[in-house]
Amino acid sequence: MNSQKTWILCCFFNFLIACVFGLLMRFMYLFPLDFLNYSFLLHAHSHVAMLGWVYLIVYVLVVHFFIPKEKSQKPIYNRLFWLTEFSVIGMMIAFPIQGYALFSIVFSTMHILLSYVFCRLVWKDCFRDKSSSQKLLLTSILFMILSTFGVWCLGPAVSTLGKQSAFYQIAIQFFLHFQFNGWFIMAILALFLKQFQDKIDEVKFKKFYVLMIVSTVLTVAFPVRWFIENNVLNYINALGVLIQLGAFIYFYKMLKPQISHFKSTLDETTKLVYGLALCSLFLKVGIQLLTIFPNLAEVSHQIRNFVIGFIHLTTLGIITGFLFGILLQHKMLSANSSILKIGVKCFIFGYISTEFLLFLQGWFFFFGEGTITFYYQSILIFSLFLVLGLVLMMSSITKRNL
Questions:
Q1: Residue 386 has pLDDT above 90, yes or no
Q2: In this model, does residue 334 exceed pLDDT 70?
Q3: Distances (CA, A) of 303 to 124, 221, 389
Q4: pLDDT value at position 159?
Q5: Considering 83, 86, 152, 341, which has the largest number of Cβ atoms within 10 A of its Cβ?
């Protein structure tokens, strides 16, 4: 089994564990388990999903597509990958047992320090051709470094003002915002655009690129507004959201001439996955436009179902959708495997049905209608499809590797 295949399998293993933690949390709504702490499990779920799945699979793809072959073969990349995986396994074990405490903080900090090493390596070894996709990748890496400033503020925030303080909460939101919207989304768009290298209209790309950076910086005002009452933050977020809409209009215009040729090169499964990713992306932009209206902005934070639905829309729909698409398109997953096709369809069914239920239940709460009949049972059953989908996908990777 070559190292890249082992890496991919390892990332899928992390994703599966994160999904199992999520499934357990939904199970606990129906059947409380005394030996498990819900909030500890939530920390484990979010950390392993973000840092074990998204971060590490982006690591694999960046090394594959952006680092010249002779440099990517250096032992440092392999060592760094396994050290990072060690920190993820540490979090996988420590968070469910103790929540935020000594060991989980040690492993989380280790992950951040290793991510700095990765940033430095990519910065040093990346092609210096200044292509549009490379520019986007290097910008995403700067956003990743910026996001970690939020984490370094957590210690001082707890010791001076406590965990309930606005400073502490804003530091967490700062980290999450720039991880998701800066580092992850820009990195996957860089990976996606890599294939259109010479065919991209530079003028349109430049407009997309600048608007994307500006909107990412401005929209951090939205989560900050949850903890600081100030109308100016509403206007900053509204401006950021409108600029983001402009960025994706240029993104579409930039790719429009390539779309029909691009579609003709894809098999049905890859088309399905990319379709899901793009639909989720437009939905995200649409939902963020709704936050311009103050009453909707307020409920988006207060109704937990909307918060979870939106996070899953970004992580499972956009980020994972694009990642699956890139892996399938470039034959890093076997698109011909019938087990894989069933796995992908199971995963998509689980994603769409749980999203539908989350947002529907959110609207029920918004209109004061209470809980949907059999809501917790239904969302638990549909979540099983996410886990089943990943198990099938992993079994197709191992079969291919034998």
A1: yes
A2: yes
A3: 44, 19, 29
A4: 79
A5: 341
What is the identity of the amino acid at 62?
A: V
Q: Which residue has the tokens 């200044």?
A: 130
The Cα 192–Cα 322 span in angstroms is: 7
Amino acid occupying residue 387: V
What region, left, alpha or beta, does residue 101 occupy, with left being phi > 0 and alpha being psi -120 to 50 degrees? beta
Q: What is the pLDDT of residues 258-276, one digit of tens each?
A: 888 888 899 999 999 999 9
Structure-token match 């977020």, residue found: 237
Radius of gyration of the chain from Cα atoms? Answer: 21
Which residue is it, tokens 């996908």?
Answer: 393
Tokens 């357990």 locate to: 24
pLDDT tens for each residue of 135-173: 999 999 999 999 999 998 888 887 787 777 888 889 999
Tokens encoding 86: 């060690």
What gap in Å lies between CA 308 and CA 241, rounded to an integer? 20
Tokens of 221: 């005002």
Alpha carbon distances (Å) from 248 to 190, 205, 211, 220: 14, 10, 9, 18
Q: Read off the pLDDT of residues 119-144 as tens digits, 9 standing for 90 and up.
A: 999 998 886 667 888 899 999 999 99
d(CA 65, CA 68): 8
pLDDT the model gives residue 2: 64
Give the per-residue SS3 of the chain. CCHHHHHHHHHHHHHHHHHHHHHHHHHHHHCCCCCCCHHHHHHHHHHHHHHHHHHHHHHHHHHHHHCCHHHHCCHHHHHHHHHHHHHHHHHHHHHHHHCCCHHHHHHHHHHHHHHHHHHHHHHHHCCCCCCHHHHHHHHHHHHHHHHHHHHHCHHHHHHHCCCCCHHHHHHHHHHHHHHHHHHHHHHHHHHHHHHHHHHCCHHHHHHHHHHHHHHHHHCCHHHHHCCCCCHHHHHHHHHHHHHHHHHHHHHHHHHHHHHHHHHHCCCHHHHHHHHHHHHHHHHHHHHHHHCCCHHHHHHHHHCHHHHHHHHHHHHHHHHHHHHHHHHHHCCCCCCCCHHHHHHHHHHHHHHHHHHHHHHHHHHHHHCCCCCCCCHHHHHHHHHHHHHHHHHHHHHHHHHHHC
CA 31, CA 375: separation in Å to the nearest integer? 14
Q: How far apart are CA 197 and CA 192, in angstroms?
A: 10
Those residues whose C-beta lies under 8 Å from the C-beta of residue 382, and which sit 6 or more positions away, are 349, 350, 353, 354, 357
